[in-house]
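Why does residue order matter? Because the sequence determines the fold. Keep that principle in mind as you read this record.
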Amino acid sequence: MFAKHHYLSHSHNNAANVFIATVNDEIAGFISILPFPHPIVKKVKRVHRLVILPDYQGAGIGLKLLNEVGKVYKQENWRYRITTSSPSLVYALKKSNDWACLDFSRKKQSRTNLINTKISSNHSANRITASFELI
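Structure:
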């Protein structure tokens, strides 16, 4: 249902926790969350996918869903992060007092990505990306 509305071409990780957003009992979007394994930084969850269907985009549903799910994880003492290349989401998160920007850069394209880019144009390489953590 959401695959055609997300730029990533690889399949969704089945281990992710999934939450949906509804508007008037209709599905408007979803978010999936994965653990972020790191040797030093412990207890981190990261957003794997955040997709809002086109009819509902621009109404703040994505940010609301992101924040509400983040509150659940923060209550369980998890750190909560997202990396995005969506200009509207970057703008909203930068304006928010609830989010800290950890990184703002252009993702480098590896040789493997360069080869795969020729096969598929659905990739995040060379996009400006920003990483944020809920504070």
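The radius of gyration is 15 Å.
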